[in-house]
Design a protein that fits this description.
60 residues, alpha+beta, four-stranded antiparallel sheet, 1 helix, 4 strands, globular
Length: 60
C-alpha cells in the first residue's frame, strides 16, 4: 500500500494477508484521507502489482 501526497509517495506498508491490508487501507483513509492531495493505493504485489483499491476513487 502506498500513501502519496501531491504525487509523491510519503508512506508505504506491506501485509502478508489481504484482510489485514484491507483493514489498514480503511484505517489510512480515515486517518489521512482528509489531507489535500492525498491518494492511497492498495496493490497486490504477488499478482504483478494489480490495483485492488484506490482512494479517492477515480470518480471524485
Amino acid at each position: 500500500m502506498t500513501l502519496s501526497t501531491h504525487g509523491r509517495p510519503v508512506m508505504h506498508g506491506w501485509w502478508p494477508d489481504l484482510k489485514t491490508a484491507e483493514k489498514k487501507f480503511t484505517s489510512w483513509v480515515g486517518e489521512r484521507g482528509s489531507r489535500k492531495g492525498t491518494r492511497i493505493t492498495l496493490t497486490d504485489e504477488a499478482d504483478g502489482g494489480r490495483l485492488l483499491k484506490v482512494w479517492p476513487d477515480e470518480d471524485r
